[in-house]
């Protein structure tokens, strides 16, 4: 399941850096036009030249990613998915979970939505994308996968809710 890899400056958490002084205050010239409807200036055109506000040089910036920001954003989006407050997502219940009585299935979904027992052992990437729950004598796993909006490929950027459809899969541990 491949996808075309986005440019680094298209990813959530990307920021430009001056290659000369390593300053993060990189600016560009732009035109804005007044919007009567918004009662504010709306960006109309951005010009090609980048300038470092710190050293004053015209530059071609180096793009870097704030990985901690990205991880926290993915965590939040995954927590929202489990809580049922998501933009693009769906839940898949395996055959074993579908066969459970309604009351047990509802308790399972409720516990998944409130799950917060993440540790370095069960969440090594810090994305809140997997969990294990026990109800009575039954053990369940849940996991979240990231797809493009057409569900044809992996998401090009799991930190971007606008290009990612999350799939929450709930299963009996024995179905894994």
What does this protein structure show overall?
The chain has about 180 residues and is an alpha+beta fold. It folds into two domains: about 20-60, no CATH class; about 70-175, no CATH class. The chain has three helices and nine strands. The chain has helices at about 65-85, 95-100, 100-115, and strands at about 15, 25-35, 40-50, 60, 60-65, 90-95, 130-135, 140-145, 165-170. It has a four-stranded mixed sheet. Helix 1 (about 65-85) packs antiparallel against helix 3 (about 100-115). It is elongated, with a radius of gyration of 22 Å. The two termini are about 20 Å apart. The model has no long low-confidence stretch (mean pLDDT about 95).
Helical element count?
3
SSE ordering:
EEEEEHEHHEEE
Q: How are the strands of the largest sheet arranged?
A: 6-9-8-7
What is the percentage of strand-forming residues?
Answer: 35-45%
Indicate the low-confidence ranges by residue numbers.
none
List keywords for this structure.
single chain, about 180 residues, 2 domains, four-stranded mixed sheet, three-stranded antiparallel sheet, 3 helices
Show the helix and strand layout.
Blueprint: E1 14-17, E2 26-35, E3 40-52, E4 58-59, E5 62-65, H1 67-83, E6 89-93, H2 95-98, H3 102-114, E7 130-135, E8 138-147, E9 165-172
Parallel strand pairs: 6-9
Antiparallel strand pairs: 1-5, 2-3, 3-4, 7-8, 8-9
Helix pairs in contact: 1-3
């Amino acid at each position: 399941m491949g996808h075309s890899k986005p440019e680094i400056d298209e990813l959530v958490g990307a920021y430009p850096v001056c290659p000369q002084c390593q300053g993060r205050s990189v600016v560009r010239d732009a035109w804005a036009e007044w919007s009567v409807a918004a009662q504010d200036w709306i960006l109309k055109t951005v010009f090609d030249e980048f300038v470092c506000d710190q050293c004053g040089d015209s530059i071609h910036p180096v793009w870097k990613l704030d990985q901690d920001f990205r991880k926290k954003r993915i965590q939040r989006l995954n927590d929202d998915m489990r809580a049922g407050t998501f933009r693009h997502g769906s839940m898949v219940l395996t055959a074993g979970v579908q066969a459970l009585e309604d009351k047990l299935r509802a308790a399972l979904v409720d516990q998944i939505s409130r799950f917060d027992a993440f540790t370095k052992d069960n969440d090594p990437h810090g994305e809140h994308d997997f969990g294990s729950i026990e109800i009575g004598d039954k053990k369940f796993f849940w996991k979240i996968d990231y797809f493009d909006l057409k569900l044809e490929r992996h998401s090009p950027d799991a930190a971007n809710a606008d290009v990612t459809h999350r799939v929450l899969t709930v299963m009996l541990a024995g179905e894994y």
